[in-house]
Amino acid sequence: MITIKEMADIVGVSPTTVSNVIHGKTKEVSKETIEKIKRVIEEYNYVPNMSARALAQNSSKIIGVIIKYPSLENRHAVQEPFFGEISGELEMDIRKAGYFMMLYCPEDVEGILNFATKWNVDGLIMLGIHPNDGERILKLVRKPVVFIDAYLKEAGEDFVNVGLEDEEGAYQVTKYLIEQGHRRIGFVGNDGIGVDRKRFEGYSRALAEHGIHCSENDLFLVGLPEERLDDYIKKIVLREYDYTALFLTSDYYAATAVNFLNAYGMRVPEDISVAGFDDNLLAVNMRPKLTTVAQNPSLKGRIAVEQLIRLINGERPKQKNIRLPIRLVIRDSVKKI
Fold first, then answer.
1. pTM
2. Which of 22, 146, 253, 333 has its CA 20 to 30 A from that of 170?
C-alpha cells in the first residue's frame, strides 16, 4: 500500500501536508493541492492506518457496548427483539459519530470488568446491569459510562443512565386489566431486580389502589433456574393458579406465553388475557395482537450515544438519570369480563 511519503513525492508537497489533508486539517492548504492529494488517495486506494491515527490522538475510536444477559434456554441477548433493535440503533449512531462499536455479551460482572480494563475503548454503553454490579463497575472502571435501563443508588462523575418510566408503564397496563374486570392478575418477569422490580412496583400499586391483595407469591421469575415459563403455564392450565390475566414484562415473554397456552388448549383472550411490555414486532404480528406498553428502544440508543460522546469530550452531564415516557397500547389480547 502506498505511504504518505510516497504520495507527498507524487504531488510535490511535504508528508505533513498530505497528512493534514487526510485528517481534515485543510485551512492552510490550497484547494488545488487538496484536489491533487485526493486524486492520489483515490487512485492508490489509500486507507489510513487507524491504529496509528488512534495512537496519535490518544483515542481508540472504539465504543464498547456490553449487554449482560443470562443464557436462558439456549438463547443469547440479541435474539430478543428489544436487544436486537437497540443494538442496531447503537451501531448506526456510534458509526455516525465517527467511532466503531465493539459488542460484548458476558454473563457476569467479572467479564465486564475484564473487558473494560483490558480493551482500550473510549467509553462504554451497558445494558442489563443489576444495581450492585453497576455500582461496582463505576468504582473500578475509569472510563465514561452510559447505562441503559439501570437503577443505581450511586452516581460517578462520568455516568449517565437512559431509562424508562417502568413503574408507570406497569401501573397503566395493570390498571387497564383491572378496569376490564380482572382481579387475579399474575406477574411474570425475568429476575425481579432493577427494571423488573420497578414494573412489579407499578403492578402492585395499581392492585392496591383497587383494594386487590397481591404478594410476592404473584411474582413469577423466568430468569431464575428453578422454573421456566412453560412450567408456570402448565400450572395455570391445570388451574393451580386461578388467574384470569397475565402481565409479562416483555413482549417476547408474552408471545411465548400465548404460544404455550394455545398448545395446552387455552385460548387468548377467551380463557385468559395476556399483556406485555415493549410494543415491538412481536406485539403487532402475533395473534391475537398484543395489548402492551410501548417504548422506543431506538430513541434510548440514540440518546445513550449522544450522552456518551459528550462524556468522552469532557462535558459534565446536565442530567444523570434520563427517564423516557411510555404509552399504553390496547389491542386484542385482553378480554373484558
1. 0.81
2. 146
Helix (H) or strand (E) holding 67: strand 62-67
pLDDT band at 49 (very low <50, low <70, confident <90, very high): low
Q: Which has the closest alpha carbon to 90: 107, 76, 102, 108? A: 102
Q: Is 72 helix (H, G, I), strand (E, B) or coil?
A: strand
Tens-place pLDDT, residues 62-73: 999 999 876 555
- Regarding whether 257 and 224 lie in a shared domain, the answer is yes
The two beta strands, 145-148 and 123-127, are: parallel
Determine, yes or no, domain membership for 237: yes
Do 36 and 124 sit in the same domain of this protein?
no
d(CA 319, CA 66): 22
Asked whether residue 159 falls in the same domain as residue 275, the answer is: no
- CATH of residue 154: 3.40.50.2300
**Dihedral-angle region of residue 314 (phi above 0 means left; psi in -120 to 50 means alpha; beta otherwise):** left
Say whether pLDDT at 55 is over 50.
no
